[in-house]
Design a protein that fits this description.
Layout (H helix, E strand, L loop, with lengths): L1 H8 L6 E3 L7 H10 L3 E3 L5 H7 L3 E3 L3 H9 L3 E4 L10 H4 L2 E3 L2 H12 L9 H8 L8 H9 L19 H12 L1
Parallel strand pairs: 1-2, 3-4, 4-5
Helix pairs in contact: 1-6, 3-4, 8-9
């Protein structure tokens, strides 16, 4: 019901894109979309392009909310049940709403450009996620490759196996990729 209410409240030129979890029954969402033209169900490709193109992300305690917070896209957690006793990261970095009217108001605020994230959101993201700033994970892995030793022995006096040429050149090849 909230999905249809939200779709009907949007200004012209906006729609709601539902991206179901892989394990969900997509038919449920497709039935809603068939009855409401401003609801689209899409599950193609990675999430990032969809997220970056969105004016805001509405989730229900989903990692998409964390990804939105990291990307600077307003995130709204739809939580009609009181989940405050079990705080989860996606909701901690999002504006939490508990009903349809609050959801419509929060989306309208996002479309108007008003900030939604709790003041603690950036600190929460920085506390829980590694490498939000600085080198990318791939760069950190390549740097780690450079520290791997080439062992000539097994440490027990027997001759050890040397890395093959493929393994020996892996750090340089990874850097060039």
């Amino acid at each position: 019901d909230a999905l249809v209410t939200l779709a009907r409240s949007l200004p012209d030129g906006h729609s709601v894109v539902v991206r179901p979890h892989p394990s969900e029954d997509h038919a449920h969402w497709e039935k809603i979309a068939a009855e409401e033209p401003r609801v689209l169900v899409r599950y193609e490709g990675p999430l990032t392009p969809w997220l970056l193109a969105a004016d805001c992300v509405v989730h229900s305690n989903c990692t998409s909310g964390v990804e939105a917070a990291v990307a600077g896209v307003p995130a709204i957690a739809y939580a009609p049940l009181d989940e405050s006793e079990f705080p989860m990261l996606p909701n901690q970095v999002s504006q939490v709403v508990d009903g349809d009217a609050a959801l419509v108001d929060a989306v309208a605020a996002a479309l108007a450009g008003r900030p939604l994230a709790p003041e603690s959101a950036r600190a929460t993201v920085d506390h829980h996620l590694a490498a939000v700033r600085g080198p990318l994970a791939a760069e950190r892995m390549v740097a780690l490759f450079d520290t791997l030793p080439v062992r000539d022995d097994r440490g027990d006096g027997r001759r050890g196996h040397r890395r093959t040429d493929v393994l020996r050149t892996l750090p340089a090849r990874a850097r060039s990729w």
